[in-house]
Amino acid sequence: MIESKAELKRLAEVAVYAAREAGKIVQSRSDTCFEVERKVAGDSLASQVVTEVDRMAEERILQCLEKGCTDFDLGVLTEEREDDGSRFEKSAFWCIDPLDGTLPFVEGRAGYAVSIALVSREGTPLIGVVYDPRSEVMYEAVLGCGALRDGEEMRIESETAQLSVFSDRSSREDSKHKAVIDSLAQEFGGSGVSQIYGYGAALNACSVSGSPCSCYFKLPKEKRGGGSVWDFAATACIVTEAGGIVSDLAGEPLLLNPRGALFMNRRGVLYASSRELAQRIRSAHGQKT
């Protein structure tokens, strides 16, 4: 069991090392041929694609985290292995996405990352680490200790008149998502909203932590999908510690240790650079549904 902030920080250092190690594997295979498979997951192609690189990176992460799991009696939840239920039995668990943004990785473009979080049994993100191996950028945070980008303190700056909306590529065809964007555009002015598509969930969310007026959201929907716990656990810690807002579309905390399905489609997810912007998005969603 983790008993101090110092122990959390030591575990964060191990997670940073594990992310870099996995990133080396990912980037070393980025320009080579590798096996691509489809798995049973959400309703989007991005959630269904998996490669041998995902599994290789995951194995390396688990090797790096193994001693900490033993020393502190931690559970593990990973994208590419069956949920063993240890997240309900231990005081905290590692939540791992070895290659978030597998689709951009397969397509040879920017947008993929390694994501590692430590989450309490109650669902509070304690540690968040996201590593972009393509640009070699490291995001990290520990609960109550702030957020870092490549070792430098990261804090969301004052709001500006220009709104940046980071969105999954699948959102282009989502009429409800477009309706919320249109509503925001009316408030900010048509030229005051820029939309950035194509990153995986981890880098979309991390982009909010580095932009003065920005957001990333996935609306609730009936079909399973909307990302899974491991897509958001690390960035929930990072963005919150950078001064941003993280919630579902009802304004409630994200369920990061849920019973049953691990998908987020029922309640959606919302990252925003300020409380005011988050409320604007929730209001726009409420008006359009």
TrEMBL record:
Its cofactor is Mg(2+). It comes from the Bacteria. Gene3D superfamilies: 3.40.190.80, Fructose-1,6-Bisphosphatase, subunit A, domain 1. This is Inositol monophosphatase. It comes from Pelagicoccus enzymogenes. The keyword Transmembrane does not apply. Mg(2+) binds at E79, D97, L99, D100, D231. It holds the Pfam family Inositol_P. The keyword Magnesium applies. GO terms for biological process: inositol metabolic process; signal transduction. Keywords: Magnesium, Metal-binding. InterPro entries: Inositol_monophosphatase-like. One of its GO terms (molecular function) is metal ion binding.
